[in-house]
Amino acid sequence: MGSKERIQRLKEDTRTNILDAALKIVKEEGWQALSMRKIADKIEYTAPIIYEYFHNKDGILLELTRQGYVILGKKVKAAKKAQEHTADQLEAMWIAYWNFAFKYKEFYQLMYGVDMVCCDQKKSMPEIEFLDNLFFDTIKDLMKGESPEENRVCRKYYTFWSIVHGLISINLVNKGRDEAMNQHILKDALKGIIKYIND
User: Fold this and answer.
1) Where is the HTH tetR-type domain (predicted)?
2) What's the CA gap between 194 and 158, in Å, rounded?
3) Are the beta carbons of 93 and 138 closer than 8 angstroms?
4) Backbone CA torsion sign across 27, 28, 31, 34
């Protein structure tokens, strides 16, 4: 490996270490505790070195948001691929979304602003568009071969999202029911919306 490659590898490793340290701080202390100074202390660098990689904390939050959407997109896509029938695909995709929210709680809080302010600059992320398209395309497929208006598909997507995200948010701020009750509510809601689309 040449010196240019080594320098590039070192830069990539440092960038990864910064993001890993930020996530570790958040898991230990919450998003409100995150600061450039704490990240620098965690990886034993000076704060100015952190600024060489990210202009400010928002830059770190934006990159972590992007990473969260990459993980979520892969999980939703895998859930869809594991099912044969469109209705089963859609249900599995939302269950994958639900599971992501609790397995990657810190990412979910950042991505959707649960119990914190989420990143403002995320609207143009291709990772979000990829995830939205997975859901939109599956909802279109479920509409029995018709060519639905984009607004109708969008309404159905937001109906799903409102219910699933609402239930997740209630539980993330510790006001939800036990897991068995949550699963029952989630599956009832998903099956009800899917049945409504199919009718």
Assistant:
1) 12-72
2) 13
3) yes
4) negative
**Token couple for 126:** 């291709």
CA distance 43 to 103: 25
**Positions of CATH 1.10.10.60 in the chain:** 1-54
Alpha carbon distance 33, 25 (integer Å): 7
CA distance 198 to 193: 9
Q: Topology of 1-54 in CATH? A: Arc Repressor Mutant, subunit A (1.10.10)
DSSP 132-149: HHHHHHHHHHHTTT----
Domain 66-198, architecture per CATH? Orthogonal Bundle (1.10)
With 0-12 CB in 10 A as exposed, 13-18 as middle and 19+ as buried, what is 166? exposed
Intervals of CATH 1.10.357.10 along the chain: 66-198
CA dist., res. 161 & res. 94, Å (int): 8
